[in-house]
Design brief:
- The structure is a single chain.
- This protein is mainly alpha-helical.
- The radius of gyration is 40 Å and the shape is elongated.
- Helices cover 77% and strands 0% of the residues.
- It starts with a helix and ends with a helix.
């Protein structure tokens, strides 16, 4: 138990030491110095007629509202399907692991029982031969 505690403490201490030893990726003296941000030169600003833009927006909104809803429902359906598949995979993962482990253990058990049967048969043969040798020795003596 103390060995496990020691290992756990060493693991935590090494992680903290690595975190303390990190430095920033960019040195302090490297960079762009900006004295004064430049603004837009006087007289080059663009003038916009927002009423005209709003009219265009309302016109395009009325003509393409069906397309936008179809795209939104298709995107939502695919994300729902993806979410369901991810959740099903996460819930099924322990079952898959258990099934694979049990099948592997069954295969190992079959191999071991086959080798044990061979060893048992060899032991029985040697024992019978020993009995025969002992009986032959008793008969001769």
């Amino acid at each position: 138990m103390s060995f496990r505690t020691l290992g756990f403490m060493l693991l935590i201490i090494t992680q903290v030491a690595f975190a303390q030893g990190r430095k920033p990726a960019v040195e302090d003296f490297v960079g762009i110095e900006v004295d004064q941000p430049e603004g837009t030169p006087q007289g080059t600003e663009g003038l916009f007629n927002f009423e005209k833009d709003i009219d265009k927006f309302e016109h395009t909104k009325g003509s393409s509202s069906g397309v936008v809803t179809a795209v939104n429902t298709k995107t939502q359906d695919s994300s729902d399907l993806t979410t369901a598949l991810v959740i099903a995979f996460m819930l099924g993962l322990p079952g898959m692991i258990w099934f694979l482990m049990m099948s592997n253990l069954r295969q190992k058990a079959k191999i071991e029982s086959a080798s044990n049967i061979e060893v048992l048969e060899k032991y029985r043969r040697e024992r019978q031969e020993a009995k025969k040798a002992e009986e032959a020795f008793k008969k001769s003596a």
